[in-house]
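Please complete every field before forwarding. Incomplete forms are returned to the sender.

SECTION A: IDENTIFIERS
Entry label: holo-202
Bound molecule: glutathione
Molecule representation: SMILES string

SECTION B: INPUTS
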Amino acid sequence: MKLFYATGTCSLSPHIVLLEAGLPFSMVKVDLKTKKTEGGVDYFTINSKGAVPALELDDGRVLTEGPAVVQYIADQKPESGLAPRAGTFERYQLMEVLNYITSEVHKGFSPLFNPAASAEVKEAAVSTLTKKFDWLSGFLGNRSFLMGNTFTVADAYLFTVLNWTGHVKIDLSKWPVLAAFQARVRARPKVQEALAAEGLLK
Ligand SMILES: N[C@@H](CCC(=O)N[C@@H](CS)C(=O)NCC(=O)O)C(=O)O
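SECTION C: PREDICTED COMPLEX
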């Protein structure tokens, strides 16, 4: 498998999941400004949406959309426990959380990374994210991970998006549950490996 990624973006989530699953894969860096891969290929020919992540399977098929990509990877290694078995109620609960992260949290950051967004728009985005973080904090409660005691693909995704708080000057220590979650996930050897590979370890 081949993961198309851009450093520190949402593609860090499938990067972590590939490592946690212990599956063989290669990485291809994408320049999101020029939409070219590091090899000079027009990235739109890989993903017509122009966004990372994209996962190219060994047979050449390409899967996009982070929540679908991480579930596909987890299902290649069911014994990893990275996702509850397909068809179970727990699997729908995982999808419920993945959907919340993608639509409410991930995309909630967008105005903060947009140089054209006004200070007012950015302030409103922080205020909206604050409500989402409040909910996530209560949902996590005293559990180690989003689905309970087992690390799943949802944790890789939440870790990835919470990692952006430092860049947009949101102080995660206001949510001790989320700060502790972040530290817990960050300490995992495969997460460290992914961060190191993307040059994100300070
Ligand atoms: N709906 C997509 C969104 C992916 C996305 O927003 N990727 C960002 C990086 S975090 C990106 O590639 N942005 C550049 C672009 O869309 O042109 C998914 O969930 O995978």
